[in-house]
Design a protein that fits this description.
By secondary structure, the protein is an alpha+beta fold. It is built from 8 helices and 6 strands; from the N terminus they run αααββββββααααα. α1 runs antiparallel to α2, α4 crosses α5 and α6 runs antiparallel to α7.
Amino acid sequence: MIFQIWLESVNGEYVEMAGSASALNQCTDLANSCIKNVFGLPMIEWCNAIDFPSRAGSEYEYIENSPSAVPQESDLIIFGIGTYGHISVFVEGNINSFRSMDQNYPLKTPCHIVNHNYKNVLGWLHFKSGIIDDMTDEQKKVLNMLQTYQKKAEHSNLEGAMNALIGNVKELGIQKEAVSNLNKDIKKLEEKIENCITKEEYNKEKEILQNNFNEEKKQWELVKKEEIAEVIKTAKEELTKEKTNWEITKEEDITKAIETAIIKSDKEWEEKTKGYNEIKESSEYKFAQLIFKLLHLTKKETK
């Protein structure tokens, strides 16, 4: 399963694993990709394909080519071609021919399946197992998931895929924290809005105040009329006592008394309504009006 996933991940791609900038996407890069991502072993770096057997180490068994020998899946096939040789990864075959995953064969070609015979094949490196075969089913499952992610995320190797995945997890944590903080801010804002008086409540309070004011005004007007009538009555009584001068002074005195009563009542009415006008002109009252206008506009927009 792991090998098949790896095959699919590299097929049609250029693989670069180790080496110098002047030797990119070589056949050895493909072999090292298999070594690292399938076998789980350290790469064999700074080495020509033909020298892989001498550098492989005890984790591998080197099998020389013979008429009856057939490589196994994922074996590294060593070709004695040219000065540096060639290396590919065995996929399937028999004693006469086989198919392998090759890179840079022909020159400058990406990873792809190539049909071979055993001409120029010197032998092959067989991984002695151990690491992957000794894995638990759960570990293999995790490795398969990582290799699937590697392919989907288009990473050339598992290490890059792992680093990207870890970065994504960290970024996700940051985003979750940001969302959590935003939700907290929204909740606080909602609490503040709930504590604000609504437009309906404002209109109700306004109506109550207006009704109270109108009622007080009516009462005051009645009192005002009664006081004027009382002043007139008193004036008449006083003028009656001086009946001799009544005809001369009644019009003047009555008019003056009425004017005095009106001026007095107007001053008292002005004092009475002064507090109401100050409230309407206060910054608190205007701020409240602004709040309700904003709430009203917000509700219109949300509809």
